[in-house]
Write a structure and sequence with these properties.
Blueprint lengths: L5 E5 L4 E6 L11 H16 L5 E6 L10 H17 L1 H23 L5 E5 L3 E2 L1 H8 L2 E5 L6 E2 L13 H8 L2 H10 L5 H6 L5 E3 L4 H10 L23 H18 L4 H13 L4 H16 L2 H18 L15 E5 L3 H12 L3 E5 L3 H20 L5 H9 L1 E4 L10 E4 L5 H12 L7 E4 L6 H5 L8 E6 L8 E6 L5 H13 L3 E6 L6 H18 L3 H10 L6 H8 L1 H15 L6 H13 L12 E2 L8 E2 L17 H21 L6 H12 L8 H8 L1 H15 L7 H9 L3 H4 L4 H5 L1
Parallel strand pairs: 2-3, 3-4, 4-6, 5-7, 6-8, 9-10, 9-12, 10-11, 12-13, 13-14, 15-16
Antiparallel strand pairs: 1-2, 14-15, 17-18
Helix pairs in contact: 1-3, 2-3, 2-12, 3-11, 5-6, 6-10, 9-10, 10-11, 12-25, 13-14, 14-15, 19-21, 19-24, 20-24, 22-23, 24-26, 24-27, 26-27, 27-28
């Protein structure tokens, strides 16, 4: 029998090599068709007496990334359609659908013939759950091998037997750590945890897998053997008595109870280890069905899995523009930001010319890249040769004529209009026709900067976030005259350096910074009201933010906030800034000399390491302090999330952001907006626009007019609309 996505070759020893290689795909993923073919392969190999065992591997450089977008989408659309007809029946049908992959993997595990998974590269999610159902697992020692069950990061959990098999192969604490964090394992770490049996050189992978079968590998999982005991003895042991009371408390400390899937993992493991394996699978199936019905799972999968992939693959790229293969990029400004941009560009295999006022400054900028390379080599992410090759692609220079053959030039100089004007003129004097000029400005509108250009259609904003090598988001900003060619080149560049772009129209602060400063300014309001600083920081983290607003302001730099407030007054008038905010920040910067982390004192004090930072005691003397029991932490959480979501809604209303996917992905990747919500607009859609408007009106009555819902929100509430309904990002495709 022939298959579309698999080849099956049986050797003289009766070992069938099943190779998964989906045509037209860069990576193997699970689809309904894959499950059907795999089911047929199991039946065929069982029925063929000549087949003594099966080795399962991939024909691509990676093993598999797990489930396909379409498969995930279909689960949600199926449930929503069925729920509209009959809610009770819909849940049963979803339960049955969820069990399909579980049942298939269990069928493989109990088929009576030994299966060995030969893991040659990235093996994620359902692909590793398939491997766990095999009787043997061999992994390549190649650096590219990453093994993980990362589902919790997108709002779900390993629901095809993962919670039950992991907890029966390794100790419960390690199992919980792996699944509740979604951490990636090297092949060596997976072997140490007893999740794979062997780690071999890449060229020995298939021979080693076949040898396991020749050596008499039993076609029976450990938990199907009589007398099986889980590692560590299971639930009713002294060790378990220490682990299980602490585990929920630790999880709550880390997640504040915001992630249903993480809690479900604990329940699956705790309950599953007390019952026979097949009953454990049913428990897992039940919890997975429940989690799939939560707002958190729907919103997180939509934003962090589906939308992120769509944006990363060029969802906003203009049609009809040929793809640009960037050969050379220029970066002007060799400070920390410019040097980091040069580093990520060179890491993508692109040659970079790094320009500064003199060769010493440019060479110093390359030193930033050298430090990053040294760190990567130390952590095993790069070899010495790879690091040397990367650095060879960065050429420091003080001569603008060295940019003459660049496809793209990015300026990352000081945030000053006159400085940027001089750079634009110097670059344009040498930049060839068709090349694109981009500004990495974080505050200055692109349209204004483009007035210094002879070719404003080729001028665009590419806003990076610090640290550039770690932050996965870039804002691509369109000036009023920016053309499709410039947008296409910018998006091709962002794709090349493996970051996720959002495309926004021009405005002060663009999208991310507008939302970030609403977050920070709400903290200013709370300080002024007398809310203890520790409560402010803790409430923000309980709301789901990765870092408190005061700590974030220290990272951004308080004197930068001061400059932005003063620039806003200069451009828009005194009424554009809350005078109490100006007074607070002026006192910190001018009165106390507290600039943030950069001078080791801001809202926090930063003692020499290894001592940890702590809130500056003087904060409590700035304003009369409320007692802790006078403050409603729940309201503080609402204020933080609502003020950011309101600002995101304003950017939609103003036409700054036109695609709700970008507001959601941008808010999460840009500054960590409570990921469990799915992003700032999904937060509103998740509770319902009407409920959000009512919340905002309630907050506005007590905490000020900046909480007043906008006209757009009121209109949507009246019509029962959602952002993804009214601003459907797929609408154009449907119309076509």
């Amino acid at each position: 029998m022939t298959y579309t996505n698999f080849t099956v070759e049986t050797d003289a020893d009766g070992i069938a090599l099943v190779t998964w290689d989906m045509p037209g795909k860069s990576m193997n993923v699970f689809t309904a068709e894959i499950l059907e073919e795999l089911n047929a392969i199991i039946d065929a190999t069982v029925a063929d007496a000549a087949v003594k065992g099966v080795v399962f591997t991939s024909g691509k450089s990676s093993f598999s990334g797990g489930a396909d977008l379409s498969m995930i989408k279909s689960m949600f659309s199926f449930y929503r359609e069925e729920k509209a007809k009959d809610p009770a029946a819909a849940t049963q049908k979803l339960f049955d659908l969820v069990g399909r992959m579980t049942g298939l993997f269990r069928k493989l595990e109990t088929c009576g013939k030994p299966w060995v998974s030969a893991i040659n590269g990235t093996c994620m999610g359902g692909a590793f759950e398939l491997s766990l159902a095999c009787h043997g697992r061999v992994a390549s020692s190649a650096k590219s091998v990453k093994i993980a069950l990362p589902e919790v990061k997108v709002g779900i959990f390993p629901g095809a037997g993962g919670t039950q098999r992991i907890a029966r192969l390794t100790d419960a604490q390690s199992a919980l750590q792996m699944m509740t964090t979604g951490q990636s394992l090297t092949a060596a770490r997976a072997k140490a945890m007893n999740l794979v049996h062997q780690v071999v050189e890449p060229d020995q992978l298939i021979p080693a897998a076949k040898q396991m079968i020749k050596d008499g590998l039993k076609p029976v999982a450990p938990w199907d053997e009589k007398g099986f005991k889980a590692p560590g003895g299971g639930i009713w042991t002294p060790a378990a008595a220490q682990l299980w009371p602490a585990a929920p408390a630790i999880l709550r400390r880390e997640t504040s109870g915001n992630y249903p899937a993480a809690l479900a993992i604990l329940k699956c493991v705790y309950e599953g280890l007390q019952v026979p394996f097949d009953t454990g699978l049913k428990i897992e199936q039940r919890y997975f069905t429940h989690v799939l019905q939560t707002t958190e799972a729907y919103s997180m999968i939509r934003s962090l899995f589906i939308s992120m992939q769509e944006l990363g693959k060029g969802a906003r790229r203009p049609a009809g523009q040929p793809k640009t293969e960037l050969k050379k990029v220029g970066v002007v400004g060799a400070g920390f930001m410019g040097a980091s941009i040069a580093y990520v560009t060179a890491a993508a295999g692109i040659s970079v010319t790094l320009i500064d006022r003199d060769i010493d400054a440019a060479t110093k900028g390359k030193g930033v890249g050298e430090g990053l390379v040294k760190d990567s080599i130390g952590k095993g992410r790069l070899t010495q040769d790879e690091g040397a090759a990367l650095l060879s692609r960065i050429t420091p220079s003080a001569d603008y004529s060295d940019l003459k053959d660049s496809d793209l030039v990015i300026e990352a100089v000081f945030e000053d209009r006159e400085v940027k004007k001089a750079v634009v003129e110097a670059v344009e004097a040498v930049l060839p026709a068709g090349a694109v000029f981009a500004s990495n400005t974080s505050t200055l509108p692109i349209t204004g900067l483009a007035k210094n250009c002879k070719r404003p259609s080729d001028f665009i904003g590419i806003h990076f976030f610090s640290p550039v090598e770690k932050m996965m988001l870039t804002e691509v900003i369109l000036g009023k005259e920016t053309g499709d060619h410039a947008l296409a080149v910018a998006l091709d560049y962002v794709a090349a350096i493996k970051k996720t772009p959002i495309v926004v129209n021009d405005t002060r602060g663009f999208f991310v910074n507008r939302c970030v400063f609403r977050y920070i300014h709400e903290a200013y309001d709370m300080l002024i009201e007398g809310v203890p600083a520790a409560m402010i920081e803790n409430a923000a983290k309980m709301a789901g933010m990765p870092v408190g607003p005061l700590a974030l302001n220290d990272e951004v730099a308080i004197d930068l906030s001061y400059k932005i407030l003063k620039a806003t007054v200069a451009d828009l008038g005194e009424k554009a800034v809350d005078p109490r905010h100006m007074q607070l920040i002026s006192r910190l910067v001018e009165g106390e000399g507290r600039l943030g982390r950069k001078n080791s004192k801001g809202f926090y004090d930063y003692p020499p390491k290894p001592a940890k930072k702590s809130l500056w005691p003087g904060l409590k003397d700035l304003y009369p302090q409320k007692k802790a029991d006078e403050v409603d932490v729940g309201v503080l959480k609402q204020r933080f999330l609502a003020t950011i979501a309101l600002e995101a809604a304003r950017t939609i209303e103003e036409g700054i952001v036109t695609d709700p996917r970008e507001a959601d992905v941008g808010s999460i990747l840009g500054f960590g907006f409570a990921p469990y919500t799915g992003g700032a607009l999904s937060y509103i859609d998740g509770m319902g626009v009407k409920a959000f408007v009512e919340l905002c009106e309630k907050l506005a009555a007590t905490y000020g007019p900046h909480f007043q819902p906008t006209a757009l929100l009121k209109d949507m509430a009246a019509k029962g609309e959602t952002f993804y309904g009214r601003f459907d990002p797929y609408g154009a495709k449907k119309a076509a």
